[in-house]
């Protein structure tokens, strides 16, 4: 397996083949081998140009490809669990949208699904955001900045934008919310805390609304 844009080492090729096999097993009966490999390779290319630790590229590609394929399956009607999906978008997918994702997953449990993305994804999660969330007992260190893709936006029921303006995708007929929040980039933990708390308040409000609507059928 190779990418169109980047040379990859033998170890990474082996890792990508293993990832493709796991994805094929997960999406057996839904997507064929060619589709899975295409999404895996394009996901790899998304991260290769800005990766600081290339050893993790196959893992990031696998995780992102899985999310994209789950979104595509929903868009194409290959079964749905009925859970509402919220997509949180900001510029670098390193601060606001990652904190929103962390709070949403923490409070939603298995009642709803959240994804996040950025119009210009960064290379790492904001350290102050990580520390601020850790103070609330939520670990976001396993997350990573990533872009949004057409299938991910199409699959979302609600798109929440945070400062990405015209760079954020707009799909007619989809529900959008724009949350005006200070950008945590370059701020201390002390300065990030008020942003964090406001994000949690809005997440809880949105989640309560979505769960109530879902319960009504």
From TrEMBL:
Keywords: Arsenical resistance
InterPro entries, sorted: Phosphatase-like_N, Ptyr_pPase, Ptyr_pPase_sf
Pfam families named among the record's database cross-references: LMWPc (PF01451), Phosphatase-like_N (PF21234)
Domain Phosphotyrosine protein phosphatase I as annotated: residue spans: 84-209
CDD domains: LMWP_ArsC
GO biological process, one term: response to arsenic-containing substance
Organism, scientific name: Nocardioides immobilis
Name of the molecule in the record: Arsenate reductase ArsC
Gene3D superfamilies cross-referenced by the UniProt entry: 3.40.50.2300, Corynebacterium glutamicum thioredoxin-dependent arsenate reductase, N-terminal domain
UniProt keyword Membrane, yes or no: no
Transmembrane segments: none
Domain of life the protein comes from: Bacteria
């Amino acid at each position: 397996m190779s990418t169109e844009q980047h040379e990859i080492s033998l170890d990474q090729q082996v890792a990508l083949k293993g990832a493709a096999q796991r994805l094929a097993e997960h999406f057996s009966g839904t997507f064929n081998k060619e589709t899975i490999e295409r999404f895996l390779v394009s996901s790899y290319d998304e991260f290769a140009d800005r990766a600081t630790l290339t050893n993790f590229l196959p893992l990031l590609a696998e995780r992102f490809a899985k999310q994209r394929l789950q979104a595509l399956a929903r868009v194409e009607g290959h079964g749905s669990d009925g859970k509402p999906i919220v997509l949180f978008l900001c510029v670098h997918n390193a601060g606001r949208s990652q904190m929103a994702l962390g709070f949403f997953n923490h409070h939603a449990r298995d009642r709803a699904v959240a994804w996040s993305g950025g119009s210009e994804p960064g290379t790492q999660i904001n350290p102050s955001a990580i520390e601020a969330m850790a103070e609330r007992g939520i670990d976001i260190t396993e997350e990573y900045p990533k872009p949004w893709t057409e299938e991910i936006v199409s699959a979302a029921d609600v798109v929440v934008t945070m400062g990405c303006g015209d760079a954020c995708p707009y799909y007619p007929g989809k529900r959008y919310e724009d949350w005006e929040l200070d950008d945590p980039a370059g701020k201390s933990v002390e300065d990030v805390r008020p942003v964090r708390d406001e994000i949690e308040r809005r997440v809880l409000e949105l989640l309560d609304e979505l769960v109530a609507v879902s319960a009504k059928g």
